[in-house]
């Protein structure tokens, strides 16, 4: 005897809507910053074409690698896997790679500081931290007009990530698709993420992500 299972139509609709929201969020948080960084690099390469053709060629080669990485991220998104760089390099290595790409084409001095030892992290925590940091850095280089920026990572019962810059500061730190997405990623793991203006100028993003 064949059994029939009937799924309510409204349940299917909710599942499909949630799936669409997840895909859009991952595109915004993952592929979006990568493509924004490539766009900034292309602008720099265009400026170098006349003054430093060899430098422009090196930069274009690096951008080609980044585009391949973005393509890998899209494929991973389709397969619901982790971003390629996190899978390959781990959290600290992936953040360092993204920062190095930005540093090679921008005037913003970005440093990555790891305080103490970070234990092995669950995949979900590594991915969430990486996406939060990458979105924050993209905001810094796109909107903050900063000269310096520092990424800090440390572990104290939970993973902590900070992105601090000396830019113009955020006029509205509680709005925006990027900030809402960063907060959602943290809250899904039972953590928190906040963005606040710094005394004396600039912005500080702070995220805390528990491992369990």
TrEMBL record:
Its EC number is 2.7.13.3. Its cofactor is [4Fe-4S] cluster. InterPro entries: HATPase_C_sf, HATPase_dom, Sensor_HK_TwoCompSys, Sig_transdc_His_kin-like_C, Sig_transdc_His_kin_sub3_dim/P. It is found in: Cytoplasm. It catalyses: ATP + protein L-histidine = ADP + protein N-phospho-L-histidine. It holds the Pfam family HATPase_c. Keywords: 4Fe-4S, ATP-binding, Cytoplasm, Iron, Iron-sulfur, Kinase, Metal-binding, Nucleotide-binding, Phosphoprotein, Transferase, Two-component regulatory system. Residues 124-212 form the Histidine kinase/HSP90-like ATPase domain. PANTHER family: NITRATE/NITRITE SENSOR PROTEIN NARX-RELATED (PTHR24421), NITRATE_NITRITE SENSOR PROTEIN NARQ (PTHR24421:SF10). Member of the two-component regulatory system NreB/NreC involved in the control of dissimilatory nitrate/nitrite reduction in response to oxygen. NreB functions as a direct oxygen sensor histidine kinase which is autophosphorylated, in the absence of oxygen, probably at the conserved histidine residue, and transfers its phosphate group probably to a conserved aspartate residue of NreC. NreB/NreC activates the expression of the nitrate (narGHJI) and nitrite (nir) reductase operons, as well as the putative nitrate transporter gene narT. This is Oxygen sensor histidine kinase NreB.
């Amino acid at each position: 005897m064949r059994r029939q299972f009937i799924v309510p139509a409204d349940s299917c609709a909710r599942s499909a809507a949630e799936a669409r929201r997840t895909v859009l969020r991952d595109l915004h948080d993952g592929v979006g910053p990568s493509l924004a960084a490539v766009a900034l690099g292309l602008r720099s390469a265009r400026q170098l074409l006349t003054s430093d053709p060899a430098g422009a060629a090196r930069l274009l080669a690096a951008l080609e690698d980044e585009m391949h990485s973005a393509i890998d991220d899209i494929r991973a998104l389709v397969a619901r896997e982790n971003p390629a760089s996190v899978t390959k390099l781990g959290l600290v290595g992936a953040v360092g790679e993204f920062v190095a790409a930005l540093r090679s084409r921008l005037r913003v001095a970005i440093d990555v500081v790891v305080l103490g030892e970070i234990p092995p992290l669950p995949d979900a925590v590594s991915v969430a931290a990486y996406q939060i940091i990458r979105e924050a850095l993209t905001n810094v280089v796109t909107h903050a007009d900063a000269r310096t920026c520092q990424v800090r990572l440390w572990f104290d019962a939970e993973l902590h990530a900070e992105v601090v810059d000396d830019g113009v500061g955020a006029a509205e730190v509680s709005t925006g698709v990027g900030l809402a997405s960063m907060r959602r990623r943290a809250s899904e793991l039972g953590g928190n993420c906040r963005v606040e203006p710094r005394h004396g100028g600039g912005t500080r993003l702070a995220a805390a992500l528990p491992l369990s």
